[in-house]
């Protein structure tokens, strides 16, 4: 009886420790030193370390797609050379920090790109109602990518491009 109680306490302690690791929200700050494209930036933190950041919950058009340059320019206008705050969600398989980026004016960059029709809501990774509503409103208003007759989602564009390379 005492052994099972001890095991239960150890098990619950380990469970608590593991769950607390996933609940810790991390915020990082830094100056935007590079805008790679609409949904990828690089910041320099207070120690001068470069951190690649991928915007969470959205996917902007790829280079070569309509509105790719517009999305990149929008991101540059809002944050290039400025100090931003990143609400970190996770680190992806490419070792990029994935998060929601806030400008010095407290503008949610991810949401701004959706609102202006310069990104798709990436529902596979994010279930945010706010982001879904922003995309739907941009569609109704035919803003940006939604002004096109048949916009191709970036993940489909990448997949098609990859399949074409395989056929060669």
Mean pLDDT: 89
* Largest sheet properties: 5 strands, mixed, barrel
Q: Runs with pLDDT <50, length 5+?
A: 9-21
Helix content: 25-40%
Structural account:
The protein has 168 residues and is α+β, with helices and mostly antiparallel strands. 40% of the residues lie in helices and 25% in strands. It contains five helices and seven strands. Strands 1-2-3-6-5 form a five-stranded mixed beta barrel. 29% of the residues are buried.
Question: How would the blueprint of this fold be written?
Answer:
Layout: H1 2-23, E1 26-37, E2 40-44, E3 50-55, E4 58-59, H2 68-79, E5 83-91, E6 97-102, H3 109-115, E7 120-121, H4 129-140, H5 154-167
Parallel strand pairs: 3-6
Antiparallel strand pairs: 1-2, 1-5, 2-3, 4-7, 5-6
Helix pairs in contact: 3-4
Any key phrases for this structure?
168 residues, alpha+beta, 5-stranded mixed β-barrel, 5 helices, 40% helix
Q: What does this entry show, briefly?
A:
It comes from Candidatus Sphingobacterium stercoripullorum. The protein is 40% helix and 25% strand.
């Amino acid at each position: 009886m005492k052994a099972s109680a001890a095991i239960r306490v150890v098990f619950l302690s380990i469970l608590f420790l593991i769950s607390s690791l996933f609940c810790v929200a991390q915020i990082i700050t830094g100056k935007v030193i590079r805008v790679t494209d609409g949904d990828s930036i690089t910041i320099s933190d207070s120690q001068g370390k470069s951190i690649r950041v991928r915007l969470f919950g959205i996917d902007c058009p790829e280079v070569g797609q309509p509105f790719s340059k517009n999305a990149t320019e929008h991101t540059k206008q809002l944050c290039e050379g400025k100090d931003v705050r990143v609400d970190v969600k996770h680190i992806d398989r490419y070792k990029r920090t994935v998060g929601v980026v806030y400008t010095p004016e407290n503008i949610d960059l991810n949401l701004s790109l959706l609102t202006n029709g310069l990104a798709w809501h990436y529902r596979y990774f994010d279930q945010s109602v706010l982001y879904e509503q922003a995309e739907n409103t941009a569609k109704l208003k035919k803003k940006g990518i939604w002004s096109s007759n048949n916009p191709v989602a970036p993940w489909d564009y990448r997949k098609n491009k990859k399949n074409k390379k395989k056929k060669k």
